[in-house]
Amino acid sequence: MTGLSRFVEIEPEDVGQRVLDREANATMTDHEVHEWLNRVEGEDCEFKEAKSSFPFDELAKYCAGLANEGGGKVILGVSDRRPRRIVGSQAFLQPERTRQGLHDKLHLRITFDEMQTPAGRVLVFHVPGRPIGTPIKFDGKYWMRQNDSLIEMSTDRLREVFAETGRDYSAERCDAANWSDLDPASIQAFRERWIAKSGNRSLATLTDQQLLADAEATIDGNVTYAALILFGTSAAIGRHLAQAEIVFEYRSTDASGPAQERREFRQAFFACYDELWTAINRRNDLQHYQDGLFVLTVPTFSERAVREALLNAVSHRDYQLGGSIFVRQYPRRLEIVSPGGFPPGITIENVLDRQSPRNRRIADIFTKCGLVERSGQGMNLIFEEAIKSGKPVPDFAHTDQYQVAISLPGTVQDPNFVRFLEKVGKERVAAFSTQDFLVLDLIHREQKPGLQFKPRVEYLL
């Protein structure tokens, strides 16, 4: 990309050395190999000497076991006892065929790296984690690792895996609620958004009952929890699902004590969605920086990012837990905390790559009316907005098994980077993927993009 090398103040040849740090014919670096050697076997690595050969069936079993435990690496050509050393392997001299064979047997997208070192050849198979709710089997058995051995998964463990897909609580009927518990104004707000998104003017002629039936917010005329959360009256939510409220606080400092402002939105989400943004935007300062003769401004909190974070909290929180969603605004950061940890299969590391809506019925309704562009893409947009504004990326440091806590930093740290994106051009920036923005962010902060970003680095250069 023209301009990228100048921005990071290195020439393209230096980018190849400092960013990719790859030898001409190698896909792994010495540093990566030795980093793997120091890992504890059983965490996410399986080491095998395989000096002359290694049984394909055994490799497939280990790949299945790793996939069932979240993914990892099978590393051949390395001693399996510490201190580990490279011994070289002649197994699977045509790894492309081996990879295809593993794909045919396991239906996993396994990749490989190989490297010639002074001590011999090292071959690494990278195994992704299994899909949610789907254990991987080979030769009719579901495998897992136990210490240095492979064993069959227990019945209890299999039951846990199959239960991961879970039930969509938002799609279930709330038997205690009836049609009078829904707010007509909230239903109308949804109707107008759906018409604007779809262009289908006939939606204006539908009764409220038919509209919500078509949106699958009701089942045979019965109110679902999704309908109650999105369209319920304040009284109904208080009676049937009080934890569906959203609590907003403004705090001028981190000091404990009463907030300067506190509002409890125990009402339909479609009745308070815009009101929440209005409350945040009231103290949304503009940050100014000079660009030649012009003074440009960046809001502390991006409306698009904040709205996406709110939608994520409402559609992914666990409504079977008693806590409320908290939105805490500080002068230079915004925190949104929602009950329930990440859904099964989602981690801080893969939150941009995997999708697992806990409340699919709510997420689908948001998609129908255009509040979200496409289910599962909200977090990508939040990261992109932060990077484009020269702000730190969102922080999940306080997330645990009981809550998801996202912090949106608001301080523009690098106006030069914002200017750089302006000069690249809006059309070019609009074509960037989330990975492209992450690569640019890492480079301008003088950090080395990982191996997974290699294709995007080459594209940007």
Q: What does this protein look like?
A:
This protein is of the alpha+beta class. 37% of the residues lie in helices and 18% in strands. The chain has helices spanning 4-8, 12-20, 30-37, 56-68, 95-106, 155-162, 184-198, 208-214, 225-231, 234-240, 269-281, 303-316, 360-368, 378-388, 415-424, 426-430, 434-444, 454-460, and strands at residues 45-48, 71-76, 111-117, 120-128, 137-138, 141-146, 149-152, 218-219, 222-223, 246-250, 261-265, 286-291, 294-299, 325-330, 333-339, 403-409. The protein has a five-stranded mixed sheet, covered by helices on one side. A four-stranded mixed sheet has the order 1-2-4-3, with helices on both faces. A hairpin with a 2-residue loop joins strand 14 (325-330) and strand 15 (333-339). Helix 4 (56-68) crosses helix 5 and helix 11 (269-281) runs antiparallel to helix 12 (303-316). It starts with a helix and ends with a helix.
Strand composition percent: 15-25%
The average pLDDT is 86
Helix content: 25-40%
Which structural class should the secondary elements be placed in? alpha+beta
Unreliable spans: 1-26
Number of helical regions = 18
Termini distance?
A: 4 Å
Task: Identify the overall geometry.
Answer: globular
Strand order in the largest sheet: 11-10-14-15-16
Index terms:
461 residues, alpha+beta, five-stranded mixed β-sheet, four-stranded mixed β-sheet, 18 helices, 37% helix, 18% strand, globular, disordered N terminus
Quick structural gist:
This protein is of the alpha+beta class. Helices cover 37% and strands 18% of the residues. Strand 8 (218-219) and strand 9 form a beta hairpin.
